[in-house]
Specification:
Blueprint (H helix, E strand, L loop, with lengths): L2 E5 L4 H17 L2 E7 L6 H26 L5 E6 L5 H7 L4 E4 L14 H9 L4 E3 L10 E5 L4 H13 L4 E7 L6 E4 L16 H10 L7 E5 L3 H12 L3 E4 L19 E4 L3 H4 L3
Parallel strand pairs: 1-2, 1-4, 2-3, 4-5, 6-7, 6-10, 7-9, 10-11
Antiparallel strand pairs: 5-11, 8-9
């Protein structure tokens, strides 16, 4: 990764997301850019004062980050007039990842979280990490929802950059499949179910192409993706869910990101990556 952008409203949740982004930037040798936009209209006589205040907040975060990760980590910032400028900032800085928190401001005026996060989950042109966890704790177990296509293949290296120490479990949700679980490499293990038997070679090819080992856990599930994801998070202490594939949010309604069961890494659709 070259550039990571972290959007914050300087709330506790927003700043925790910035610190998570800093952790990722530090171990990927990326630069970090902090993005802020005013969540309310300001009287003209307060604009310059507010700008100085925001600059101070960014300087404080920069000092905290560089104290933790060293002065070599480059930290810059943007104070925008409105949240929609995030798209231009992503493009101008050629960002590889956007990190936000799910916090909803108590006065309902928050610009970055809640509805902003839902919008980004649908049309962000780069992978979007919605972070709720302690930024000092590395991810240990990730559930990657995949469709076994090229978009899912290209997502796995990004997932590994975001979470280099994580154990990855692959989950394919198919409404036509009876729920079952197996491990690639076990005798007969390539056949997940009778319905998915014709995907066995695709599963093996996917595993090999992305460099996953023979013990990678494969879950085939039926039903509501949100329920299946929550079940895995609760039963196996998953701390990062990656939504990948041609339609990453397929079956997962946008409001799922408002109260995620753990950190979410949402990959962009082809249309979001290459807008018309």
């Amino acid at each position: 990764m070259n550039t990571i952008i972290a959007a914050t409203d300087f709330s506790t949740a927003g700043n925790r997301a910035v610190l998570r982004a800093a952790y990722i930037a530090a171990h990927t040798d990326a630069r970090l850019h902090i993005f802020h936009a005013a969540s309310m209209r300001l009287p003209l006589d307060q604009v310059s004062h507010f700008a100085v205040l925001i600059e101070g907040y960014i300087d404080t975060l920069r000092a905290q980050i560089q104290c933790r990760h060293g002065p070599a980590l480059e930290v810059t910032g943007t104070d925008a007039a409105e949240w929609q400028e995030i798209y231009e900032v992503i493009d101008r800085h050629r960002a590889d990842l956007l990190v936000v928190g799910p916090h909803v401001h108590p006065n309902g005026l928050d610009a970055f979280h809640g509805t902003f996060v839902e919008r980004l989950a649908a049309d962000c042109p780069v992978p979007l990490l919605i972070s709720t966890s302690d930024p000092a704790m590395p991810y240990r177990l990730s559930l990657a929802c995949v469709d076994l296509g090229p978009e899912s293949e290209s997502a796995i290296p990004v997932l590994r950059n975001v979470a280099p120490e994580v154990e990855i479990t692959l989950m394919r949700i198919d409404l036509q499949t009876a729920e079952s679980t197996t491990r690639c490499g076990e005798p007969g293990g390539e056949v997940i179910s009778a319905t998915l038997e014709d995907t066995a070679q695709a599963v093996a090819r996917f595993r090999d192409q992305v460099g996953l080992d023979a013990q990678t856990r494969i879950i085939a599930a039926q039903g509501d993706p949100r329920a299946r994801i929550r079940e895995q998070v609760a039963s196996r202490a998953v701390d990062l869910v990656a939504l990948t594939g041609a339609d990453p949010m397929g079956g997962v309604q946008a409001n799922f990101v408002k109260a995620p069961p753990c950190d979410l890494l949402v990959f962009p659709t082809a249309r979001a990556r290459h807008p018309a």
